[in-house]
Design goal:
mainly beta; 41% strand
């Protein structure tokens, strides 16, 4: 399959790389303790194109049932790349934080957005559904982000491949370039929490920054 690279697609992938490498900063906008976990609901009065948050009433899980409530959405996302690019939709993925240092190897265009190495594809949202208002986000002040959409997802245990590190969920806006038969990524949003395997069956989650012994995923 012939790949077509363009300045616009390079610009698009540059945005995703910038956002992903800023993940440790974004992760600090949350709270968590022994009674539960809540990350991503403090905006710092900064509205991203796509915002993602996570909440849980507990912090310890069976490794086969790390089930969390995720919130995500955004609005005012303009068209990307002119008429040549077709917006496919918004793809949702889980990934381990160690891939923050390897995602920069993504090319400006990708052949299959459902099969990005290290990323576990969860679902796809059509442009029409995303624009319906169900995914709108409202920001009030510096610590009150209200999401119209939330869903409960179980994290693939394969994502927790290290003994400890970052567990991340990301939403990517996907475009298709018909002439080149390839895809590219525009806006992204993500949230992450730290995890630690207590034993072969138990995983403990915590807010970012609470355990200093974790390796830096960047």
């Amino acid at each position: 399959m012939k790949k077509v690279k363009s300045i616009k697609s390079i610009s698009g992938i540059a945005k995703i790389l910038t956002l992903l490498f800023l993940l440790p900063v974004f992760l600090l906008t949350g709270c968590g303790n022994g009674n539960g976990l809540k990350v991503g609901f403090g905006s710092g009065n900064n509205r991203a194109a796509i915002m993602v948050a996570v909440k849980s009433e507990k912090t310890e899980f069976d490794i086969d049932d790390v089930t969390l409530d995720f919130y995500y959405g955004g609005s005012d996302i303009g068209k990307y790349g002119g008429e040549a690019y077709e917006r496919i939709g918004f793809a949702v993925y889980f990934f381990n934080g160690k891939y923050l240092k390897t995602i920069k190897n993504l090319e400006p265009v990708i052949e299959d957005y459902r099969a990005i190495p290290g990323f576990y594809f969860v679902k796809e949202i059509s442009p029409e559904e995303y624009a319906s208002g169900d995914y709108d986000v409202e920001i009030k002040g510096f610590s009150d982000v209200k999401f119209n959409h939330n869903e409960t997802l179980t994290v693939p245990k394969e994502t927790l491949e290290l003994s400890k590190g970052y567990l991340c969920l990301t939403v990517m806006e996907i475009y298709y370039l018909p002439g080149g038969e390839v895809y590219c990524v525009h806006h992204t949003g993500h949230v992450g929490v730290r995890y630690e395997k207590i034993n072969d069956r138990t995983v403990r989650l915590s807010k970012p920054g609470t355990i200093t012994s974790y390796p830096d995923p960047s």
